[in-house]
Task: structure prediction
Amino acid sequence: MSEKFDVIVVGAGASGNAAAYTLAKSGLKVLQLERGETPGAKNVQGAILYADALERIIPDFREEAPLERHIIEQRMWVMDERSYVGSHFRSDDFNKPPYNRYTIIRAKFDKWFSDKVKEAGALVICETTVKELLRDDKGKVIGVEVDRADGRIYADLVILADGVNSTLARKAGFRPELDPKHVALAVKEIHFLPKDVIESRFNIQDEEGVVIEMMGKITHGMMGTGFLYTNSDSISVGVGCLLSDFMEQKITPYQLLEQLKAHPSVAPMLEGGEMKEYAAHLIPEGGYHAIPQIYGDGWLIVGDSGMFVNAVHREGSNLAMTTGRIAAETAIELSRAGKAMSAANLALYRQRLDDSFVIKDLKKYKDLPDLLDTNKQFLTTYPELLNRSAYAMLKVDGEDKRSKQKDIYRGFRAERSLFGLLGDAYKLWRAFR
Amino acid sequence: MSDKAVSIKVEDKLYQNRYLVDAERPHIQIRDEAICASCTTRQCTVCCPAGCYEGAEGKVVLTTDGCLECGTCRVICTTHRNVEWEYPRGGYGIQFKFG
Result:
């Protein structure tokens, strides 16, 4: 291929599709390369779609995108081995269009998004892995080399939307190897059940959905969470923990998932389902401090490749789409002004991200990953005490409530000193304020 | 949970997945087998979500056919950096039906 493009986008995930669509729609000559057999074949997500980020790219997406269920109820469970203490939030406000959050199945959704990219005028080529970036003698990125015959393709700008592992950014020296402390490994399964069974099991009606986030002893003290999402006729269930924690534990990721599924509060929800796929994926959770250099001469980094995930709020795909869109808008603006795709000009991309919710939110929680990493009592001791307390207070056994409260207080004091309890409260307040 | 033994063969899970295996061309390789032989932690044999790494007498055996392409093995090999990790050739490897 001796053609030259305005922009090459590497990867057809959430960020790559957002970038390629926005670029192509503006009339730029865009090539998008994807290593999967079809767009979506390599992509894994829970998956929750946040409408706002996509709406800013394709305003009427609700009319045609393959969406599973809009979420009307959010459950947060703090668990020990046999029980959970939960807070459930369900609101009819979430049940009025336009809906805010949806469950999706990525393989279906990505195929749709990719069709939109093609309709917008981009050339999308699948089954093609980019081997490396091509650079001139000054180090400027001038194209890519793919694993096909005559595999050199040139462009003014290359957008790296190649995911959390970004072999391209690592090989080019734009980003160091991932730190196990900054990345979570998530494993998930999809279980199929009849639509009406899901609806009666979760107390929902047609197209309504429930998400459950789980924390506590289910992760064996590892920093992480479990999740369960309702799709139309299937349930996604999974668990993810920091890789640095997995390295210290002697439990395999699939054992952890199996234990979560066997929890007495989880198993009944999956009962009778047919498991049809098992997936694993890394999630960049290093937050603000882990964001690498994201622009340079002839290149930009978007999505997971740039570590754009808000682990606290379980947001990733919206940051991916937003960074993809803003990267594209920056390139369009430079192109229209006749300016070069130089590092100095592309710095505008970083400035715009700084002004957006993407960097603002990541900055807000910049110290939380470290806090939880060194304070494991939030993940083990407290969930257990909470569940024990709830059990003691609710069990009617002839003991008076004041005595029970004293026992509960003694339980907390036995596990943590008064100073430790106050310190923990302060640390959490600091991290979330 | 932790006290209740849950036995699971990862092969039963992987069996549900769709792969296009690039025969004879593994995309991940162990750089130096001698390093694995002397490695005391062998975290890859525990952390790999597809169970691709198997500890054996004096070596670690890697079979990439069931690989989910997550990158875990490369990231956790922090002491030795002994994992040569590439994506499979275009079109090969795991093809998620749902993702």
Remarks:
- The first strand of chain B starts at residue 19 and ends at 20.
- Residues 27-94 of chain B form a domain with the Alpha-Beta Plaits fold (CATH 3.30.70.20).
- The interface with chain A takes residues 1-4, 6, 8, 10, 13-14, 16-17, 20, 41, 43, 46-51, 68-72, 74-76, 78, 85-91, 93-99 of chain B (CB under 8 Å).
- The mean pLDDT of chain B is 93.
